[in-house]
Amino acid sequence: MSSKVSKWMILPAAVLVLGTVAVAQDSSSTSSSSSQSSSSTSSTQAKPTVAQRKENQQDRIANGVKSGQLTAGETANLESKEAAINGETRADRAANGGKLTSAEKQQINQQQNQVSKQIYQDKHNANTAHYGNNEVGQRRENQQDRIANGVKSGQLTAGETAKLENQQHAINQQVAADRAANGGKLTPGEKKQVNKEQNAASKNIYNKKHNAKTQGGKK
After folding, report:
1. Can you give the pTM of this predicted structure?
2. Where does the pLDDT of residue 46 fall: very low under 50, low under 70, confident under 90, or very high at 90 and above?
3. Integer angstrom CA distances of residue 110 from 71, 76, 127
């Protein structure tokens, strides 16, 4: 009698285990199917538009300026390349009733790929913007922050940013030369001259951020 009872007790337990395994396999299959579906959806997502690619590049440059990973010289070079691509894009659109052909889009994308690599390399090389805990360094950092914010907001075009960063690059080179000639320090006269030049640069930044030129669709 006890033997029969134990057999009937074992049978439901076995059925329960088999049922659990089946549910687990079904869940795994569903998860795999969902993953494959997600992967398929991701692979079929549309490529970023020319405008989206342009905005992405500007955001990356702005972040590099803000963090100090990009020097004024590096930023000026990158923005000059972006300005050239933007100029080419405008010319192509003007010649085709406001649109770009497939070949033109492909060409622009290839050019942006090259700039993208350059942005990465410049942000990860040994050159960084060192500001220093002094009046000249703080003024320089403030200018870079204002430029970065202008790029991020779309108030500054690539061409405007290139000009502003060239101006900052020239001031930075002058400061470096003055320090090298004076044992790492600046004389009161040199500090006054640098401050005067940064005042002019500050007005330039303000004027360019508040004129009619903006990055398309960002302001």
Report:
1. 0.76
2. confident
3. 25, 21, 26
